[in-house]
Task: inverse folding
C-alpha cells in the first residue's frame, strides 16, 4: 500500500519550481450532464446501505453547499439476491435507528456528531421495519436496481469470504526517542488463488483524549495479492484519515499510545478494487506530470460503486 | 506492388550504371583551422550549379564526370566558398579545406556561389543547424539548447513550457529517432525535460528530417534528429567553456598526431545544489539536492585517406536526493543515458565509401527510497547493442546510392522493483525483462531524370523478433493471471516483418524554384507510452510483442520551394498528411501497478495528422533569421478512449508561429530575438464532481477537450565580443551573452488545477480554477571563452 511514495520527491521538486507563479482563471466548460451516483455497500449480517446522489458541475449556477440538492429522493430501489427482489425503502436521518447512525455517518465520511444536524440526509436500505429483511451473506451475488426520473441503473457485486488476520499488534516507532507513536502491524495468510483483493479502514477511540472517530479508509486503502499470493505476510497499515487531512511526515500513518483501534479488513471483488484504486490514484495525482484517471465504477447507467465487503473486525489497544 | 517497385528500382539503377567512361574526383571537405569534417557541404559545377553533390556524414564527397576541364565550387554554410579549377583526365583525390567567413555573424552567412540547396535537393522537411548558429539565440538561464532551437522550426512543437521534448507533425515523443554519433538516445531531457542532454559545446552539427525520411533511417514514424559530435581539432590544442547561472562547461580538444588524430573531451555540470547548500543548512531542506552532468568524449585516428576510425561516447546523469527533516524518509533517484560508438570508415574506391559502426547505448532510471522500515528500489531501462554497415556509392554526376544493414539487440527492463516492508519482500525481477532482435536492410538511389527531375527512391526491409527468456502471463476472463507460458533463452516469442518504400521527388521550375513530393512508409517496433502530460524520466520503452503491434505510419508531403534575391531569401510551403496505425495509449482508468506488465493496460487506435508549414528564411546580411508558421490538425481514434469518439492528441496545436531574428549591430554587439505563439495545449479537465465517502470525485469531460490559454513569449539576447575588426587570431577570446527569457513576463499556462477548500458537508465548499505558470521573466548572463 506504499507503492506510490517515490512520487513524493518528484512532486516536491515540481512544487518548489512552480511556487509563486499561480493565478486564478476562469474556465469555460460545457454544461455537464447530471448523473446519478450510487454509493452502496453490503456486508455479512448487515442490511445493504445505498446512498443516491447526483453529480454536480464544477462551475456554474449550482450551489454545492446546498446539500439537499445532491440527494436523489423518491427513487425506486431494489436488490435481487439471485432468488428474490428485495425492495429498499428510503430512510432519512431522523427515521434511522441509532445503531445505523455510525454506518450512515461513514457513508458520508462524517464524524457522528456533525451528521446528526443534517436534516436532508436520506439513504435506501432494506425494510427494517417490515418483513422483507435483507441481510448480507458471504458468497451471494446481489444485483442492485435503481429507477429514478426515467433513469435506470444497475450494478452487481458479491461478498467474498472474509480473511481474518493471523495476528494484529502495535510496533514502536523506529526512532526510540518517539515513544508515543506506534505502527499497526498485521500478519495474515492470503488464500492460494490469485485475484484476492482487500480494503481496510481503521477507527480510533480514546475517552482520555475525547477521541471517537468513525472508520476511515487508509489513504491507499486497497491492495491485491499479485505480490503475495498464497503467502503469509506482514504489513504495516497506515492509520486511516479523512482525505482532506494533510500529509504530515512526522505522524503520517502512526497511532498514538493508549488509543483503541478497530481494524476493519474486507475481502472485495476485482471491480470494487478497481473502483477504489482508480479513485485513490486520481485523488492523489494532479499537476503537470499526471493524467486524468477516470474512476472506474461498476454501475451501468450511472456513476459510483455497489460493493460487497467480506468484513472482519479486530480490536487492539495501541502500545499494550 | 513491391515486386514492381523493386524491378523499377533495379532498372533505374542499371540505366545509370551504363553511362559513358568517366573520371572521379573525390576527397574530404574539412575546416581549415580545426580539421573537422564538414557534413553536408555542397560540391557543384560552377557553370551548371544544378549539378553536384554534398559531402556525407564524414565529410567525404565524390563526383564522377566525363574527362574535361571543370570549375568546381565548394560551399558550406558559414564558410568562405572555394572554386577549384580541375582538369579531369584521371581519377583525382582532392581534399578541400574551407575557412570560416570573416564577417562577425559569420555563422549565418553563406558566401559561396551556390546556396540553393533547399531548392535543388530532393530533401523535404529537412533542416540543418550549426551549433554556432544556435549559440547566438536567447536561451533560458543562458543554457544554449539544440532541441529548444529546433522547436522554433515549423512542424516541430515543444512538449511544454521550457521543455526540450518535441513533437513532429503530430507524432508522439517516441516517434523521433534521436541519434548522437549514430547511437540512439532514449531520453533527451535533464530535469524533467527542461534541459536537453546535448551539450552544445560538444556538438558539431544537427540535422532534423521531419518528412520524407530516406531509407537509410528507420525504426521511428515521425522524424530523425541526427546529431554529430565534434571530432576534435587535429591542428592545435584549444579549449572553450562557459560560466552560466546554473551550469558551467569546459571543452578541450587537440591533435594527438597533427593532421592524423585528435581528441575532444567536453563536460558540463549544474551547480544549483552546490550554491544552495549554504543557504539550506539547518533548514527543512538540508540534505536535498539536484544536479545533472554530461560528459562527451571523442577520439579519431586516420590511418590513411582510405581508413579512419572514430570512438566516441556520452555519459550523462541526473541525480535527485531527498531526505526528510527527521530522516524518516529518503530517496535517491539517478537517471541518464550512456552511449558508445566505434566507427571505421573505409574507402573501397573513389566512388565507394563504407562505414562500419558498433554502438552501445542504454538509458537507466533508478529509485532508492526508504520510508521508516519500508525499503523500495526500482529500476527501469533499455539497453541496445547495435552493429551497422553503410555504403555510399557515387556512380556518376547527379547519381548516388546508399545501401546497408543495421542489427540491434534490445533489452528492455520495464520497472523491476524490489521492496520490503517489515518481513514482506516484493520482487518483480522475474516478470520483466524483455529481449528482441531488430534487423533492417536498405537501399536508396538518388538520380536525375533530365535536367529538372531528381528522384530519391528507397526501400527498407525490417524484421523484429521478441525472444525469450520470457514468461508470458495468461489471463483469465477476470483479467487475473491464471497461467504462464515460458519461453527459453533465444526462443521466438513473436516476430514482425515490414517493407518500407520511400520516395522523394523534385521538379525544378526555374533556377530558384522547385516542387517536391515525398512518400514514406515506416514501421516502429519499440514504443514509449506515457500516462502523463509531459515526458518524464519514468517513461517506459516497451517492445512490440504478442499484445503490442508495431506502429505503422504513412506520410505524404508536397512542397513548393522558392528563393528570392539571389538566394538571400528562402521560402517554402509544405503540406503533409500522416496516417498512423497501432498508436498506443494507456486506458482511461489506468493505475500504475508494480508487478503488472504495462502492456496489459494499453489500448490501441489510429492517428491522423495533417497540416501546412510556411517558412521564410533570410540567410545573408546584417539581419538574418526566419519566420515559420504551421497550421496543423492531429487526431486520435481509439475505440476504448473518449467513448470511441475522435479526440485531439495532446500535442494538437492549431497555430504555431515562430519568429527568429539576429541583428549584427556592430563588430562588438549582436542582438537576437525570438517570438513564439502557439494555440493552447489540449488537456482533459473535470466537468463535474460527485461525492463518495463525502469526498469530491472528478468526472472528466471529453479527452483533451479543453484548451489552455495560448502560449506566447518573446526572448531577447545581446552578445558582446571584443572588437574583432583586425581579424587577428587571439590566444584568448571571449564573449558575454545577456539573455532575457519571457521579456514581457507572460504567465503562460504550465497546467491548471482546481483548488478545493472546505467541504460539502460543512457547507463551506469553495472551488476555484488555478493556472500555474513556470517561468516568469528570467534574465541571465553567460560568459563564454575560447583559448
Result:
Amino acid at each position: 500500500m506504499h507503492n506510490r511514495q517515490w512520487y513524493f520527491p518528484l512532486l516536491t521538486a515540481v512544487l518548489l519550481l512552480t511556487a509563486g507563479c499561480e493565478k486564478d482563471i476562469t474556465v469555460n466548460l460545457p454544461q455537464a450532464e447530471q448523473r446519478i451516483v450510487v454509493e452502496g455497500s453490503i456486508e455479512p449480517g448487515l442490511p445493504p446501505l445505498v446512498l443516491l446522489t447526483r453529480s454536480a458541475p464544477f462551475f456554474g449556477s449550482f450551489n454545492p453547499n446546498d446539500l439537499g440538492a445532491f440527494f436523489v429522493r423518491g427513487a425506486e430501489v431494489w436488490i435481487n439476491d439471485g432468488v428474490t427482489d428485495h425492495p429498499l425503502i428510503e430512510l432519512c436521518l431522523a427515521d434511522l435507528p441509532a445503531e445505523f447512525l455510525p454506518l450512515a455517518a461513514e457513508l458520508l465520511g462524517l464524524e457522528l456528531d456533525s451528521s446528526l444536524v443534517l436534516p436532508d440526509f436520506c439513504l435506501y436500505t432494506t425494510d427494517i421495519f417490515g418483513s422483507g429483511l435483507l441481510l448480507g451473506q458471504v458468497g451471494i451475488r446481489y444485483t442492485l436496481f435503481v429507477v429514478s426520473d426515467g433513469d435506470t441503473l444497475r450494478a452487481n457485486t458479491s461478498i467474498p469470504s472474509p480473511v481474518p488476520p493471523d495476528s494484529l499488534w502495535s510496533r514502536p516507532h523506529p526512532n526510540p526517542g518517539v515513544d508515543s507513536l506506534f505502527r499497526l502491524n498485521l500478519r495474515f495468510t492470503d488464500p492460494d488463488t490469485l485475484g484476492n483483493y482487500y480494503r481496510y479502514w481503521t477507527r480510533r477511540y480514546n475517552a482520555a483524549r475525547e477521541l471517537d472517530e468513525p472508520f476511515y479508509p487508509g489513504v491507499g486503502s486497497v491492495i491485491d495479492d499479485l505480490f503475495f499470493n498464497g503467502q503469509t505476510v506482514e504489513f504495516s497499515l497506515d492509520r486511516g484519515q479523512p482525505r482532506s487531512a494533510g500529509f504530515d511526515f512526522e505522524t503520517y500513518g502512526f497511532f498514538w499510545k493508549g488509543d483503541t483501534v478497530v481494524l476493519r479488513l474486507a475481502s472485495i471483488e476485482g471491480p470494487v478494487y478497481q473502483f477504489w484504486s482508480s479513485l485513490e490514484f486520481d485523488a492523489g495525482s494532479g499537476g503537470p506530470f499526471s493524467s486524468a484517471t477516470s474512476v472506474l465504477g461498476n454501475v451501468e447507467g450511472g456513476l459510483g460503486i455497489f460493493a460487497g465487503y467480506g468484513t472482519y473486525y479486530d480490536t487492539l489497544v495501541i502500545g499494550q | 506492388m513491391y515486386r514492381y517497385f523493386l524491378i523499377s528500382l533495379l532498372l533505374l539503377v542499371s540505366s545509370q550504371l551504363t553511362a559513358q567512361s568517366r573520371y572521379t574526383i573525390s576527397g574530404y571537405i574539412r575546416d581549415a583551422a580545426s580539421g573537422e569534417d564538414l557534413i553536408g557541404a555542397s560540391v557543384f559545377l560552377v557553370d551548371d550549379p544544378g549539378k553536384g553533390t554534398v559531402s556525407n556524414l564524414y565529410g567525404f564527397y565524390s563526383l564522377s564526370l566525363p574527362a574535361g576541364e571543370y570549375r568546381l565550387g565548394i560551399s558550406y554554410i558559414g564558410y568562405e566558398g572555394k572554386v577549384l579549377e580541375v582538369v579531369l583526365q584521371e581519377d583525382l583525390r582532392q581534399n578541400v579545406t574551407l575557412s570560416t567567413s570573416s564577417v562577425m555573424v559569420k555563422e549565418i552567412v553563406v558566401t559561396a556561389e551556390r546556396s540553393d540547396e533547399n531548392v535543388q535537393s530532393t530533401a523535404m522537411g529537412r533542416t540543418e543547424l550549426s551549433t554556432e548558429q544556435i549559440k547566438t539565440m536567447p536561451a533560458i538561464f543562458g543554457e544554449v539548447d539544440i532541441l529548444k532551437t529546433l522547436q522554433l522550426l515549423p512542424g516541430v512543437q515543444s512538449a511544454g513550457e521550457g521543455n526540450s521534448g518535441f513533437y513532429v507533425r503530430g507524432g508522439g515523443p517516441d516517434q523521433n529517432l534521436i541519434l548522437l554519433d549514430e547511437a540512439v538516445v532514449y531520453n533527451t531531457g535533464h530535469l524533467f525535460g527542461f534541459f536537453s542532454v546535448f551539450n552544445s559545446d560538444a556538438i558539431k552539427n544537427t540535422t532534423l528530417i521531419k518528412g520524407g525520411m530516406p531509407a537509410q533511417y528507420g525504426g521511428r514514424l515521425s522524424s530523425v534528429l541526427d546529431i554529430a559530435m565534434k571530432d576534435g581539432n587535429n591542428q592545435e590544442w584549444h579549449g572553450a567553456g562557459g560560466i552560466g547561472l546554473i551550469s558551467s562547461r569546459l571543452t578541450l580538444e587537440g591533435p594527438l598526431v597533427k593532421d592524423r588524430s585528435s581528441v575532444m573531451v567536453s563536460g558540463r555540470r549544474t551547480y544549483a545544489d552546490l550554491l544552495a547548500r549554504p543557504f539550506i543548512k539547518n533548514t527543512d531542506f538540508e540534505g536535498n539536492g539536484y544536479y545533472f552532468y554530461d560528459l562527451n568524449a571523442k577520439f579519431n585516428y586516420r590511418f590513411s585517406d582510405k581508413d579512419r576510425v572514430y570512438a566516441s561516447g556520452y555519459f550523462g546523469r541526473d541525480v535527485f536526493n531527498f531526505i526528510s527533516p527527521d530522516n524518516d524518509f529518503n530517496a535517491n533517484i539517478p537517471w541518464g543515458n550512456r552511449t558508445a560508438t566505434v566507427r571505421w570508415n573505409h574507402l573501397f574506391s573513389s566512388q565507394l565509401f563504407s562505414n562500419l559502426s558498433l554502438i552501445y547505448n542504454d538509458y537507466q532510471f533508478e529509485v532508492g527510497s526508504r520510508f521508516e522500515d519500508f525499503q523500495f528500489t526500482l529500476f527501469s531501462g533499455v539497453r541496445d547493442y547495435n552493429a551497422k554497415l553503410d555504403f555510399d556509392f557515387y556512380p556518376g554526376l547527379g547519381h548516388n546510392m546508399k545501401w546497408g544493414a543495421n542489427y540491434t539487440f534490445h533489452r528492455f527492463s520495464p520497472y523491476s522493483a524490489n521492496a520490503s516492508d517489515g518481513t514482506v519482500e516484493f520482487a518483480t525481477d522475474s516478470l520483466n525483462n524483455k529481449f528482441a532482435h531488430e534487423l533492417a536492410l536498405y537501399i536508396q538511389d538518388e538520380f536525375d531524370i533530365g535536367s529538372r527531375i531528381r528522384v530519391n527512391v528507397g526501400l527498407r526491409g525490417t524484421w523484429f523478433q521478441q525472444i525469450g527468456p520470457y514468461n508470458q502471463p495468461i489471463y483469465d476472463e477476470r483479467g487475473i493471471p491464471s497461467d504462464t507460458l515460458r519461453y527459453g533463452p533465444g526462443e521466438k516469442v513473436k516476430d514482425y516483418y515490414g517493407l518500407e518504400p520511400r520516395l522523394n521527388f523534385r521538379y525544378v521550375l526555374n533556377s530558384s524554384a522547385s516542387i517536391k513530393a515525398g512518400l514514406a512508409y515506416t514501421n516502429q517496433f519499440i514504443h514509449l507510452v506515457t500516462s502523463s502530460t509531459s515526458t518524464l524520466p519514468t517513461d517506459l520503452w516497451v517492445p512490440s510483442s504478442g499484445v503490442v503491434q508495431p506502429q505503422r505510419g504513412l506520410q505524404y508531403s508536397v512542397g513548393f520551394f522558392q528563393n528570392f534575391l539571389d538566394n538571400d531569401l528562402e521560402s517554402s510551403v509544405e503540406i503533409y498528411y500522416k496516417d498512423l496505425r497501432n498508436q498506443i495509449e494507456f486506458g482511461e482508468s489506468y493505475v500504475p501497478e508494480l508487478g503488472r506488465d504495462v502492456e496489459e493496460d494499453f489500448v490501441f487506435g489510429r492517428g491522423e495528422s495533417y497540416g501546412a508549414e510556411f517558412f521564410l528564411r533570410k540567410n545573408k546580411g546584417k539581419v538574418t533569421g526566419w519566420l515559420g508558421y504551421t497550421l496543423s490538425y492531429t487526431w486520435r481514434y481509439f475505440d476504448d478512449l473518449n467513448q470511441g469518439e475522435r479526440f485531439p492528441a495532446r500535442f494538437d496545436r492549431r497555430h504555431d508561429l515562430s519568429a527568429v531574428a539576429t541583428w549584427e549591430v556592430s563588430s562588438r554587439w549582436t542582438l537576437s530575438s525570438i517570438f513564439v505563439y502557439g494555440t493552447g495545449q489540449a488537456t482533459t479537465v473535470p466537468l463535474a464532481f460527485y461525492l463518495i465517502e463525502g469526498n469530491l470525485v472528478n468526472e472528466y469531460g471529453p479527452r483533451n477537450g479543453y484548451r489552455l490559454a495560448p502560449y506566447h513569449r518573446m526572448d531577447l539576447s545581446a552578445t558582446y565580443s571584443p572588437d574583432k575588426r583586425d581579424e587577428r587570431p587571439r590566444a584568448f577570446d571571449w564573449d558575454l551573452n545577456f539573455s532575457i527569457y519571457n521579456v514581457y513576463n507572460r504567465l503562460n499556462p504550465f497546467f491548471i488545477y482546481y483548488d478545493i477548500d472546505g467541504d460539502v458537508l460543512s457547507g463551506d465548499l469553495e472551488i476555484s480554477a488555478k493556472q500555474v505558470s513556470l517561468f516568469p521573466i528570467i534574465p541571465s548572463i553567460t560568459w563564454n571563452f575560447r583559448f
In short: Confidence is low (pLDDT under 50) at residues 1-20 of chain A. The CA atoms of residues 105 and 115 of chain A lie 6 Å apart. The two ends of chain A are 25 Å apart (CA to CA).
